[in-house]
Design goal:
The protein has 124 residues and is an all-alpha fold. The protein has one domain: MazG-like (Helix Hairpins, Orthogonal Bundle). It has four helices and no strands. Helix 1 crosses helix 3 and helix 2 packs antiparallel against helix 3. It starts with a helix and ends in a 17-residue tail after the last helix. The model has no long low-confidence stretch (mean pLDDT 94).
């Protein structure tokens, strides 16, 4: 089985179990997205704490496992939002591939999008 599809299946099962166990109301997709974006902001703050962003404090060694845990938490919420909006693993993958190609074009100056450098000899 495709790993991304497997992640989507695991998240779907978790979301269903969570809603059942916690007797969650039938939120609209808009309400779910709002809640999950807030959860992601919280997880991003936890990730930021792991990478010594506080220049006024003594830095500590990076904890790779803690950082990985925060990234996994973010993935949980991202996949959950996809599911709430009816976006499946294949759609997310295809959207990523298309955006990745566009990002390369932008950095190579091969886009009409404003704000990117025109082509130069070193990036052709």
């Amino acid at each position: 089985m495709d790993r991304l599809e497997h992640i989507f299946q695991l998240q779907r099962a978790f979301d269903e179990e969570l809603a059942r166990r916690r007797n969650l109301p039938a939120y609209t997709p808009e309400e779910w997205i709002q809640k999950e974006v807030l959860a992601m902001i919280s997880e991003l703050a936890e990730l930021l704490d792991e990478v010594n962003f506080k220049w006024w404090k003594n830095p500590r060694p990076l904890n790779r496992e803690a950082i990985k845990g925060e990234l996994v938490d973010l993935l949980h919420f991202l996949v959950s939002m996809c599911l709430k909006l009816g976006i499946n693993a294949e759609e997310l993958y295809q959207g990523y591939v298309q955006k990745n190609q566009e990002n390369f074009k932008r950095q190579q100056g091969k886009t009409e999008k404003e704000g990117y450098l025109p082509p130069s000899p070193h990036n052709l």
